[in-house]
C-alpha cells in the first residue's frame, strides 16, 4: 500500500463552472480567500506534492502552485484532468480533489493511502451516504482503461470506476467535509452558515 508521502495530489479546477455563471470556481472567494486556497491550506500539511489542473486562468492559478491543463480539448470533466495527470505525473499513486470543497478532511491523505493495498486501482471517499467520485486516489495502471473509456465517448465517472478494482474509504465521521459549492446560492448560504458558527 502507498504511504502518504508516496502520493501526489491534484486539485481539479478544470471545469466550465456552468452552474457558477461561468465564473472560475476555484478563484471565487469564500471568507476573503479563493476556494482553491482553502483546499491548498488543508492539503499542504498532508502532502508535499500538490499540482493544479486548470484550463482557464492558468496564470492566476500559477500563484498557488504548478499548473497543467487537459490534453483532451472537449472538456470531458474531471476525467480530463485525471487523464492529463495520470499521463504526465511520474508517480504510481495520484490523488484528486475538487477545487470547490473548502472543508476537506485534515486526515484525507493518510486515510486514503492507508485504505489501499497492492490490488487497489481506485480508492474513493464515502461520506456515509454517497461516494464522492472526485475525491479519489488512483493507481497509474488505470490509465489504459481511462484512455479507452474516453475514446469510446464515455464521460460518466462511476462507469469507469466499475471497470476497475475500486474500494471506498469511510469518512462517515466527517460527512460535511465534502460539501462542494456549485452555485452562487450555495456559496452564499455556506458563507452565511459559517459566519453564524
What does this structure look like?
With 197 residues, this protein is an alpha/beta fold. The protein contains seven helices and nine strands, in the order βββαβαβαβαββααβα. Strands 5-4-1-6-8-7-9 form a seven-stranded mixed beta sheet, sandwiched between helices. The chain has a two-stranded antiparallel ribbon with strand order 2-3. The radius of gyration is 16 Å and the shape is globular. Mean pLDDT is 87; it is low at 17-21 and 192-197.
Helix content: 25-40%
Element string (H = helix, E = strand): EEEHEHEHEHEEHHEH
How many runs of DSSP E, i.e. beta strands?
A: 9
Shape: globular
The residue ranges in which pLDDT falls below 50 over 5 or more consecutive positions are 17-21, 192-197
Instruction: Tell me the structural class.
Output: alpha/beta
> Tally the helices: what do you get?
7
| Cα-to-Cα separation, first versus last residue | 39 Å
Largest sheet: 7 strands, mixed
- The pLDDT mean sits at 87
| Order of strands, widest sheet | 5-4-1-6-8-7-9
Radius of gyration: 16 Å
Tell me what portion of residues adopts beta-strand conformation. 15-25%
Summarize the structure.
Helix content is 30%, strand content 21%. It is α/β, with parallel strands linked by helices and 197 residues long. Strands 5-4-1-6-8-7-9 form a 7-stranded mixed beta sheet, with helices on both faces. Strands 2-3 form a two-stranded antiparallel ribbon.
List the helices and strands and how they pair.
Blueprint: E1 7-12, E2 29-30, E3 33-34, H1 35-43, E4 50-53, H2 58-61, E5 67-68, H3 78-88, E6 93-98, H4 108-115, E7 122-126, E8 131-139, H5 143-151, H6 157-162, E9 166-170, H7 184-196
Parallel strand pairs: 1-4, 1-6, 4-5, 7-9
Antiparallel strand pairs: 2-3, 6-8, 7-8
Helix pairs in contact: 3-5
Amino acid at each position: 500500500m502507498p504511504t502518504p508521502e508516496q502520493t501526489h495530489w491534484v486539485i481539479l479546477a478544470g471545469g466550465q463552472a456552468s452552474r457558477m455563471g461561468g465564473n472560475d470556481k476555484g478563484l471565487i472567494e469564500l471568507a476573503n480567500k479563493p476556494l482553491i486556497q482553502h483546499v491548498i491550506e488543508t492539503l499542504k500539511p498532508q502532502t508535499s506534492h500538490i499540482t493544479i489542473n486548470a484550463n482557464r486562468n492558468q496564470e492566476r492559478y500559477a500563484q498557488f502552485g504548478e499548473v497543467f491543463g487537459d490534453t483532451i480539448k472537449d472538456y470531458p470533466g474531471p476525467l480530463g484532468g485525471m487523464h492529463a495527470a495520470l499521463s504526465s505525473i511520474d508517480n504510481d499513486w495520484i490523488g484528486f480533489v475538487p477545487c470547490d470543497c473548502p472543508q476537506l478532511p485534515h486526515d484525507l491523505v493518510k486515510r486514503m493511502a492507508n485504505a489501499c493495498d497492492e490490488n487497489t486501482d481506485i480508492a474513493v471517499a464515502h461520506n456515509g451516504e454517497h461516494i464522492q467520485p472526485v475525491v479519489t486516489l488512483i493507481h497509474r495502471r488505470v490509465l489504459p482503461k481511462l484512455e479507452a473509456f474516453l475514446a469510446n465517448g464515455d464521460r460518466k465517472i462511476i462507469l469507469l470506476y466499475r471497470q476497475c478494482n475500486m474500494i471506498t474509504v469511510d469518512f462517515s465521521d466527517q460527512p460535511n467535509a465534502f460539501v462542494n459549492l456549485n452555485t452562487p446560492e450555495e456559496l452564499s448560504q455556506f458563507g452565511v452558515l459559517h459566519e453564524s458558527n
